[in-house]
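Q: Could you predict the 3D structure of Alkaline phosphatase D family protein?
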Amino acid sequence: MPTRFRRQISRRRFLTAGAGAFGTIAMPYLSRAADRPQIAHGVQSGDVGVDDGVVWSRADRPSQMMVEISTTESFGHARALPPIAALPESDFTARMLLENLPAGQEIFYRVRFRDLAHTGISSEPVVGRFRTAPADRRDVSFVWGGDVAGQGWGINPDDGGMLTFATMRKHRPDFLLHSGDTIYADGVIAAEVKLADGKIWKNVTIPEKSKVAETLDEFRAAHKYNFLDHNLRAFNAEVPIFVQWDDHEVVNNWSASKQLPAAYKERDVMLLAARSARAFHEMYPLRQSLAEPGRIYRTLNYGPHLDVFMLDERSYRGANNPNLQTEYGPESYFLGPDQLAWLKRGLLNSRATWKVIASDMPLGIIVYDDGPNRKGSEGIAQGDGPPRGRELEIADLLRFIKSAGIVNTVWLTADVHYAAAHYYNPDKAQFQEFDPFWEFVAGPFNAGTFGPNGLDNTFGPEVKFIKAPGPGRQNLPPSAGMQFFGHVRIDGGTGQMTVTLRDRADVALWSTTLDPKIG
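A: Sure. Here are the predicted structure tokens for Alkaline phosphatase D family protein:
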């Protein structure tokens, strides 16, 4: 849907409205410190709009989450919101939608949990912040990427922990677009891993990560493991997250046809996916869809210059197969008809300068399934030639974008564990009914580094930049330095978008500035 800026309230009205609407109340403090509820996993915000945003936290017992918000760090004239329950059914997590916020304003929030059994006892406070989306054409800055705690590379204090999050935090982005593989539910985190040079990588460990995730509590624990990292908690407290999922939230390359490895006692992949989805929604500050509870695909409007279309390329795909169909049907679904129709409507109605399509998988990079002889397709691309299989869906979308005169679409993705910039050129493509566009690839944040993969010429991708280990140097640890993220800056005055690919040491590896077209 197009950005519709609702009637905004000023910072002064925000503060004065607080006392009338909710009252500024004194939050209860403890007399028995040992009995306090604990907030072990920090706070998060996410899905921020022009006048609202979601905050999240987790207690260690049945509690009420109590939130105060203010436009000043001192919490002068803070507004206290009605408490909400954090119960065992949600693993003591709680999310709250903060509404009626001033546009383009830094919002400070303070979270405590009040023990339900002893209402005079509450936790120590934890403070977070986020900036609401602008109603005017100011600068916008955000980072993106994916892949956390993969291939057995977990939290290593000797390596500084998950350093990419500390590096991204220094840029003070408006938000993080997390492209998926937020966890590796199918990956074991061992206490020690021997490196190629004979050194030892030492992980923080928890019992649940000694095996693949199968139960709901094991999926939850995989998310909570990541939150043990101090870099990640500090980042979450200051930067909102726009999150989607990919395969490793469940198991590598999962679809309805997935044959689970011997490590799994539970043999039903769709049951694993359902448990994973519940844990995913509990552990992140996502907006809830009334039309389809648990839906991940959504539009996030971030001011006049930017709409972000968050895709879900897992929940509606057909079973992984050779991907060679010549007609579109259930076997070649990737987004699926309903999500595809939603995306077309959203792009057509968007009035934002830039339309960012957040895809959890790349378009033209070939990603094989893990079956015998690696002939199956895990992603969109299936090899050179005209559109077939899942490519039929993308061809239809690209044709629609061109015929509707939609301009300034950019695709951002992760998944393949290296950094790249691809320019899709119809003059070099087998299918040519589309306007040129860019796709940028970033990641991993904290996982093994791989690649590069082969490219499919169906949509004519040209490699403008690539940074990958190359043959014989796969699954490099984070300590090798090849951990990547992308940084996007949109100039409020000109509308120009500058995209920079960086490594965890904050070295700018490659950059380009895109001029917006007038549709």
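Q: Anything worth pointing out?
A: The first strand starts at residue 43 and ends at 46.
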